[in-house]
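Hey team,

Filing this mostly as a record. A colleague (T.K.) asked me to run one chain through the structure pipeline before their review meeting, and I want the input and output archived in the tracker in case anyone asks later how it was produced. No errors, nothing strange. Just documentation.

Input sequence:
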Amino acid sequence: MARTPTPHNEAVAGQIAPFVLMPGDPLRAQRLAEAYLENVEQFNGVRNMLGYTGTYQGNPVSVMGSGMGMPSIGIYSYELFNFYGVESIVRIGTAGGVAPSVRLRDIVLGMGACTDSNYAHQFNVPGTLAPIADFGLLRRAADAAERLGYPARVGNVLSSDVFYNDDRTAEQRWAKMGVLAVEMESAALYLNAMRARKRALTILTVTDVVSRGEALTAEERQESLTQMMEVALSLATPDLNA
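Output structure:
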């Protein structure tokens, strides 16, 4: 923790909780902190990547934006795990449905993160590295969604480097392999957690299904994101983040 503050995070040791929620949008991080946490203090504003720490039901929780894409979440999650003593990061975001069975408003728990990125190359393993979630977080999230009565699916997501893909058939080929949804960050988060021997999970809300031309309205998105947040905050318990 002696390497704090960093060029990307002005927090000092002790300002960030062991449990961190990471939406992509820093303004969403601000809204979530204000809506769900008590005794909130801002710990970061560098590059407008807002970060806050407060409590939820007496448990310390931090919320910080990750930005878009694997290079961005790769930087922020690396520093949180390795410089700030963070034990668990839960990415909370939106995704496009890929599998034909996936519906709008579904909550997707990313058991694994397929990717078209070269992020894992840095680890120089003699084969293909599979970015996977922490099973403890995954199991608790699945149990919480079931208890709350929210539609949740567990499986592979696709973390893509490409938002506007020139190959219009790519999504169909991922769907053929059972991939549930597409987003842009989880593989890097999982790989950083695996390397640091820490915990990570992605919880996503399906807000559009391009193959069917479906998308949630702004009001519908907010309602569904609230359900995702309830599932994510159920994981903020001391026994999981000690």
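Quick notes for T.K.: The first strand starts at residue 19 and ends at 22. The chain has a mean pLDDT of 95.
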